[in-house]
Amino acid sequence: MSTSSVYSNRITLSGLISGIDTEAVVKKLLTGEQTKLDRLKQQQQILEWKKEAYRDINAKLLAVRNALADMKLSATYNAKKVASSDEKTVTATANGDAVPGTYSIKVKQVAQRVSYSSTAALGSSGDKSSIATQFGLDNNARIKFTIKGKDGEIAFDFKAGDTNMDEIVRAINNQDIGLNAFYDSGVDRFFLSSNDFGSTAEISVKVDSLNGTGSFLNDILKMGFDYGTSGVSHTVTSSSAIAATPPADTALLSSLYGGTETVPSTVTFSLQGTGATVYNFSFNTATTTIADLVNGINAQTATTGITAGYNPALGAFALICNGPIAVRADDQEFLGSKLNLVMDENKGTSCKIDYNGATDLEFDSNNFTLNNINFKIDHNAVAGTPVTLTVTNDTEQAVTKIKAFVDAYNKAIEAINGKLMENRPMENHAVKYMPLTDAQKEAMSEDQISAWETKAKMGIMKNESVLRTTLANLRSIASSIIGDKVADANVKSKDELVDYVESTTGQLVSNCKYRSLAAIGITGGIYASGNTDNGKLNIDEDTLRAALESNADDVKKLFTLTQTDITATSTVTYGGENYTRTLNYNIGIAAKMYEGLTDTMSEITNKAGSNSSYYDNSKLGQDIYRFETRIAEQEERMYDLEDRYYARFTNMEKVLGNLSSQSAWLAQQLGNNSSS
Fold first, then answer.
1. Cβ neighbours of 558 (radius 10 Å)
2. Which of 214, 301, 303, 426 makes the best surface tag, with the fewest CB within 10 Å?
């Protein structure tokens, strides 16, 4: 409501000649018009308060609807809890669809990731600015290694003087191949592990070279990869067939490349076996067959100690040596990518369990889901210990959410009852407290204004039809009963079927034990005239918990069943014809109330608008706007009258001024005549 004064802030010389208090006189002359303006503002203020009250009610209804959103979810009623006989070995949670009961699990093996670390301190110098300074290498020394993880393989190539350990760690971690590297300068060790657990986790080395004759990973970082032992036969073989259809040994090397791959003209690689000599091989892909490749490598066995072989039936290539085998270079990644050779391949271990009579079930993680139960095996679990898991219904979640709904529902009911039952304070058959005028507010303190307006708001919503309808609908749904089976109707015509359907509340789903809130311990209070608690719900928690523990699915149906269409053809025959009728049935209480509240809140929003809307096109909003227009028109009328009144008094002052001047002149003339 506007608090601006209608009177102009004009500068006037009030009654200088006449002695009249012009401002006071004009104000009294405008008293009737000011009363009209005050009444318009009071009516507008009452509409503003009504709009505010409706929006407050809508906020409480929204809280009910939000609680009902949880009530409509099956998960609210299907919650399960799991107790473990040995939580140090196995813990678990259960999905809503898990079947209550007792389950037995025996851990036979836990899933492990692949991990390697330096077997001893690296012996680094104090200067770690580069690999060269840290390990006493030549600045131009080349570091080459190819490692493979679950998600891919990468060939790395560094210059010792241009890189340091932190950069090597970042280079590995940035490749997203399923591996994680870390260097701890405090203990001077390097760590490499797979991100994942299980049999799919992998750390494989395909190339490991330092200046072509040594191993960076094993010799410098002391990782302990198994490239073979001196004097012991060692084989490096293809980790998988080199092609989906194993090629014959007469196949050219170029044929090992796919149709979209670029085929190098030559492939070069370096091998080192029992001796200190590293031999560099080079083969033309267009003219060299697999057999030629085998023969070429074997031609240098005296130098390398390595013998090559190929099994065309398996598509497997192998290198054999009486000692370590090292791939020192693989420039085109031919050995690693086309022959699938791996210097050292290491896989993680899967989790293996016996479960309810099923043996040796395997999972690639210690966290897995089985029969809607989410298992978590401790990484340090001792194999072979039987563990019993007991799955039961978890009623607490449902009870908590049902109580939240009832609490929100009762607050809404109390608020609506309060508005409908509240009377306006009266005195001598007139409203005692009307909205304050601007003049009244100027004479009061803030606390006095607040106290007055609290009383002035009382009773303005009494008997509002929208609130009465809302209250009736809420109470009706809360006390409703899921209906009888339509199929039991003894009808003989289409019209009788329609009449029957319209007279019933729907159809009871088969084997649903609970047909009302009262059946699960939620009841309404006794009605008493003038009581704002009328229609509130009360919960018998013992009855509710018992229903959830014994028949959670039926409690779920009572709340969550949604409208479904069925066709009744066998029950209606009339005039030799079968009639079909689409029937709506099985509407759960939460679903029904949610839909009803959505409609009601929309109706209230249409009447009073929403706090979240910038423009107010509601009915009350339009009514308030019309009052604003009338108030503006009344203020304009008063401005015009004020101007007219001041103009008249100004003219009067001018006339009186002229008369005063004339009187003074006459007096002066008479005085002069007397003197003469």
1. 25
2. 426
Q: What are the domain boundaries of the chain?
A: 80-111+350-393, 226-348
Residue-wise pLDDT tens digits, 576-605: 444 444 443 457 889 889 989 999 999 988
Q: What is the Cα gyration radius of the chain? A: 46
> Token pair of 558, please?
């009572």
The strand ranges marked E within 322-382 are 326-330, 344-347, 351-355, 358-363, 367-370, 373-377
Q: Which residues contact 167 (CB under 8 A, 6 or more apart)?
A: 158
- How confident is the model over 533-542, as pLDDT tens digits? 788 999 999 9
The neighbour count for residue 265, using CB atoms within 10 Å, is 9
Task: Indicate the helix (H) or strand (E) that contains 634.
Answer: helix 619-675
pTM to 2 decimal places: 0.62
Residue appearing with tokens 């609908």: 473
pLDDT at 571: 42
Task: Summarize pLDDT for 467-491 with one digit per residue, the tens.
Answer: 999 998 898 888 877 654 444 444 4
Q: Residue by residue, what is the 3-state secondary structure of 102-146?
A: EEEEEEEECCECCEEECCCCCCCCCCCCCHHHHHCCCCCCEEEEE
Whether residue 218 contacts residue 143, with contact meaning beta carbons closer than 8 Å, is answered with: no
How far is the C-alpha of 417 from the C-alpha of 475, rounded, in Å? 12
Backbone φ and ψ for 283, nearest 5 degrees, come out as: -135, 140
Interval 334-370: pLDDT, tens? 999 999 999 999 999 999 999 998 999 999 999 999 9
CATH number listed for the domain at residues 226-348: 3.30.70
Backbone angles phi, psi at 12, to 5 degrees: -125, 150
Q: 606 CB contacts (<8 Å, ≥6 apart)? A: 618, 619
Rounded to whole angstroms, how far apart are CA atoms 450 and 216? 82
